[in-house]
Amino acid sequence: MAEDIQDGAEETDEDGECVESDITRWLRPKPLAILAAAIVALAIAAGGVSYLVWGGDEDEGPGTATIDLGGPLVYRELPEVLADLQPEGPTTHHIKLQIVAELPEDHVPLMARHEIGVVDAVLAHLRTQRRDDLTGEAGAERLRSNLLAVINGEIAPAQARTILFKSYLMD
């Protein structure tokens, strides 16, 4: 009978019926064990996700985010600017802008200190633009986002929230 038994092979009893060996029985997948492992893995993953979403600081409630806005928002009007645009052929076009910056009240003194640099940076940016790039609603929105980046670069670490055009004239 010893020669009939090999690792992983099935044994036969006296009646010739197949009998599983201990190794084969041990290697067979057990649905209950697989289900239990899946439930444990799911519980660990759910706990990790809930910690990331709702856990963290005990000082604040779950799902609370704190953003420092720097005080109430105010509007700061910049001096009117007139700039010539990049020439397109024999004619030179001009743009005249009146810009109002919306920024936290705490940042107004910093904006006042850097106002000359802000106006200079705005003029330098406008001189690199072409009339076709600034025409229409898309051009105005593109200019708004570019000028916001220019202004924020000049008054850093303070930041303006947005800029508004009080006047926007091109010839």
Write a brief structural summary:
Helix content is 43%, strand content 19%. The chain has helices at 22-27, 31-54, 108-113, 115-127, 131-134, 136-155, and strands at residues 11-12, 18-19, 73-77, 81-84, 94-104, 162-170. It is elongated and about 110 Å long.
Verbal overview:
The protein is an alpha+beta fold and 171 residues long. It has two domains: 1-66, no CATH class; 73-170, Tetrahydropterin Synthase, Chain A, CATH 3.30.479.30. Helices cover 43% and strands 19% of the residues. It has six helices and six strands. It has helices at 22-27, 31-54, 108-113, 115-127, 131-134, 136-155; strands at residues 11-12, 18-19, 73-77, 81-84, 94-104, 162-170. The strands form two sheets. Strands 3, 4, 5 and 6 form a four-stranded antiparallel beta sheet that branches. A two-stranded antiparallel ribbon has the order 1-2. Helix 4 (115-127) runs antiparallel to helix 6 (136-155). The longest helix has 24 residues, at 31-54. The protein is elongated and about 110 Å long. The N and C termini lie far apart (105 Å). The model is unreliable at 1-8 (pLDDT under 50).
